[in-house]
Amino acid sequence: MLKISNTVTLQAWEITLTAIRSQGAGGQNVNKVSSAIHLQFDIIHSSLPDIYKQGLMALSDSRISKQGILTIKAQQFRTQEQNKEDALERLAQIIRSAVQVQKKRRPTKPSRAANEKRLKSKNARSQTKSLRTRVSH
After folding, report:
1. For the domain that residue 34 is a member of, what is the CATH number?
2. Annotated region Disordered: where (predicted)?
């Protein structure tokens, strides 16, 4: 059972975990040990509330297929158990981020004092540069 929030949990049967061989260099066990984990989660047929499902399907994430299947590949660690925990934690994190409401951005403008300070410094710089010109008699 995977806990998403105080009220939302996922049952073990909803998540498909498959052990696969990791990519890259790995020494003597690279071709013998299946330490990476391939996690698949069917969003549409899950027991998640509708708001979670809609949020997940609205994400523009390449790991979510058009059929609503989220695929996570965990191969960061050397042991299968650590990769399994990593994949489950990443799944929970993606689900939590789907329902997080983004703070609305309010456009701001500089204060009057900041604007005056900027103009004063521009004027001082202009004066400095104008004093460098050739003097005419």
Report:
1. 3.30.160.20
2. 99-137
